[in-house]
């Protein structure tokens, strides 16, 4: 199974569990009544304000805030529960689908060697590469590697296709200032370039889109307010 299909399943499952938590831990009818009351009070308050009745407007404002507080308190328990779940799941997903870090060995002045090794959910591979790292800045670092039978030169932030996936390479240094090349796998190609995203969704953006859409659908199906 392709990684983007697996992540689709996990993200949809998380969205369903979150919606189910809201359904079980809240009282839908209480929330519906509170929302209906808030809407009615807002309309009456606007009419009072237009009529110049400040006393009535203030009274209605107090009632409306009380109704809104009821809604907020009803959502507190499932909100905290879902936050804890999201924190745990995000950490796990990052470990499963996050970037592949390739340690680099300094072979000569400003030249490094490493292996782009991937053994995730698709067929594993290991591709040797070299890095020319002039002391100017990270954007000048160049990766030389054989991609699909042709030698290619990649700069930090460049994308390439390998083993059926789109990858983006970046250079990072750890706390000991040791250089590493990090390869991020993209999951879904986009029809056009998107600022801050690129030409493909990585695991996080794919997860984000599926969770938002799935949560909306499951909340509707379960009658969650």
How would you summarize what this structure contains?
The chain is α+β, with helices and mostly antiparallel strands and 225 residues long.
Protein model, in words:
49% of the residues lie in helices and 31% in strands. With 225 residues, it is of the alpha+beta class. It folds into 2 domains: 111 residues, no CATH class; 95 residues, no CATH class. The strands form 2 sheets. Strands 1, 7, 8, 9 and 10 form a 5-stranded antiparallel beta sheet that branches. It has a 5-stranded antiparallel beta sheet with strand order 2-3-4-5-6, with no helix packed on it. Helix 1 packs antiparallel against helix 3, helix 1 runs parallel beside helix 4 and helix 2 packs across helix 3.
Q: Output the number of helix runs.
A: 4
- Overall body shape: elongated
Query: Which range does the strand content fall in?
Result: 25-35%
Distance between the termini: 35 Å
Q: Outline the low-pLDDT stretches.
A: none
Main attributes?
single chain, 225 residues, 2 domains, 5-stranded antiparallel β-sheet, 4 helices, elongated
């Amino acid at each position: 199974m392709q990684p983007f299909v697996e992540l689709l399943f996990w993200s949809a499952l998380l969205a369903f569990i979150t919606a189910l938590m809201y359904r079980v831990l809240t009282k839908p009818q209480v929330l519906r009544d509170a929302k209906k009351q808030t809407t009615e009070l807002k309309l009456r308050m606007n009419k009072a304000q237009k009529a110049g009745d400040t006393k009535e407007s203030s009274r209605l404002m107090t009632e409306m805030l009380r109704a809104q507080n009821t809604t907020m308190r009803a959502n507190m328990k499932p909100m905290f529960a879902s936050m804890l779940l999201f924190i745990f799941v995000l950490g796990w997903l990052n470990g499963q689908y996050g970037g592949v870090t390739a340690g680099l060995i300094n072979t000569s002045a400003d030249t490094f060697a490493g292996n782009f090794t991937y053994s995730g959910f698709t067929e594993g591979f290991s591709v040797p590469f070299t890095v020319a790292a002039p002391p100017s800045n990270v954007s000048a670092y160049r990766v030389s590697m054989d991609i699909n039978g042709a030698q290619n030169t990649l700069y930090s932030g460049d994308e390439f296709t390998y083993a059926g996936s789109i990858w983006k390479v970046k250079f990072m240094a750890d706390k000991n200032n040791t250089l590493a090349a990090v390869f991020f796998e993209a999951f879904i190609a986009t029809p056009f370039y998107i600022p801050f995203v690129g030409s493909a969704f990585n695991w996080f953006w794919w997860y984000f889109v599926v969770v938002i859409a799935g949560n909306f659908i499951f909340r509707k199906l379960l009658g969650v307010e």
